[in-house]
TrEMBL record:
Binding-site residues for Mg(2+), renumbered to this chain: 103
One of the record's GO molecular function terms: identical protein binding
Gene (name only): pfkA
GO CC terms: 6-phosphofructokinase complex
UniProt cross-references to Pfam families, sorted A to Z: PFK
Protein name per the record: ATP-dependent 6-phosphofructokinase
PANTHER family, A to Z: ATP-DEPENDENT 6-PHOSPHOFRUCTOKINASE (PTHR13697:SF4), PHOSPHOFRUCTOKINASE (PTHR13697)
The UniProt record lists the keyword Repeat: no
Localization, UniProt: Cytoplasm
Family assignment from sequence similarity: Belongs to the phosphofructokinase type A (PFKA) family. ATP-dependent PFK group I subfamily. Prokaryotic clade 'B1' sub-subfamily.
Length: 319
């Protein structure tokens, strides 16, 4: 193997730059050249490919976003578009590819592998929705950002004795909501994976105020319901004042936390090690604090299991 390529795809996540740096520096240390591919699979197909050096990744570890840029490029689902991508890889003499992205990006990596091209996936998504890894790169930073935002919301909620329904990201996954809910002492966490009863939540909030609480915080995962609608539903059963708040894309930005930088660095170096062993079609993970890998194909039959004990814990602690 002489040269590898690297791209970031799907929703950006803090720590992607740290992963790019680790892949690049590990490869260079092992005498392998590295090509950066801009704008995910879109840039691959367009041939937006450049040679990277150790300096290219200097001063990047602390930066949020991805300096290789990202894209959602649904066209890559089509075989003829994938073949165009492979043509570009061949044209640039790239022997294997590291893809940093979420579940969607893994599908793209699998397709490349099926066309006989070694690709390895690193889990880069704030959602933490990927099977066979306890953490995805970016999850920790996003949780900390959301936590800090909700702490601020709590200040104004307390001053006005209001209920706030705060929508956090996570597409169809409740991991951000569960972690942030526990970390902010939320009165209720609502996630797509668990049934909920709005009337019961409203009753609990009312009881909270009756017990002397000065605020009510509901952390709502985006995959469940629109925050305004949820707030309106709550108000059918409660006589409190309420507001809805959508944290949105601010959760995807910012300098990565120590944990995201370290995990990204470990995973990036590990991916290159696997490629050096001639392995491909794999997804890298961190399970029980150990670096692991699985066939990408196995990931699509598996389901991500969140730490649902947090959901129950929060119910006990919110009383
Ligand atoms: N079934 C698929 N086959 C090939 N490529 C795919 C497939 N699904 C997604 N992709 C590629 O991966 C990109 C990122 O996927 P997306 O689901 O948007 O984000 P993420 O990877 O963060 O989950 C898509 O825009 C597309 O280029
Ligand atoms: O930025 P977009 O395209 O609006 O997408 C928003 C979605 O991307 C995410 O922020 C991250 O998801 P992915 O990592 O799978 O791309 C989700 O939490 C959210 O549902
Ligand atoms: Mg995804």
């Amino acid at each position: 193997m002489k040269r590898i390529g690297i791209l970031t795809s799907g929703g950006d996540a803090p720590g992607m730059n740290a992963a790019i740096r680790a892949v690049t520096r590990t490869a260079l240390a092992n005498g392998i050249e590295v090509c950066g591919i801009r704008y995910g699979y879109a840039g691959l197909v367009a041939g937006d490919i450049f040679q990277m050096t150790s300096e290219t990744v200097a001063d990047k570890i602390s930066r949020g976003g991805t300096f290789l840029y990202s894209a959602r490029f649904p066209e890559f689902k089509e075989e003829e578009v994938q073949l165009k991508g492979i043509e570009q890889l061949k044209k640039h003499g790239i022997d294997a590819l590291v893809v940093i992205g979420g579940d969607g990006s893994y599908h793209g990596a699998l397709k490349l592998t099926r066309h006989g091209y070694n690709a390895i996936g690193l889990p880069g998504s704030i959602d933490n929705d990927i099977p066979y890894t306890d953490y995805t790169i970016g999850f920790d930073t996003a949780c900390n950002t959301a936590m800090e935002a909700i702490d601020k919301i709590r200040d104004t909620a307390t001053s006005h004795q209001r209920v706030f329904v705060v929508n956090v990201m996570g597409r169809d996954c409740g991991d951000i909501a569960m972690h942030v809910g526990v970390a902010t002492g939320a009165d209720a966490i609502v996630i797509p994976e668990e049934p909920f009863d709005i009337k019961e939540i409203a009753e609990n909030l009312k009881q909270g105020f009756a017990n002397g609480k000065k605020h009510g915080i509901v952390v709502l995962a985006e995959g469940v319901m629109d925050a305004e609608k949820f707030k309106d539903e709550l108000l059918k059963y409660g006589d409190f004042d309420a507001r809805a708040n959508v944290l949105g894309h601010m959760q995807r930005g910012g300098s990565p936390t120590m944990r995201d930088r370290v995990v990204a660095s470990e995973m990036g170096a590990y991916a290159v090690k696997l490629l050096l062993e001639g392995k491909g079609g794999l997804a890298v993970g961190m399970e029980n604090n150990k670096l692991t890998h699985h066939d990408i194909l196995d990931l699509f039959d598996a389901k991500h299991h969140g730490n649902y004990a947090l959901y129950s814990l929060n119910k006990d602690l919110a009383k």
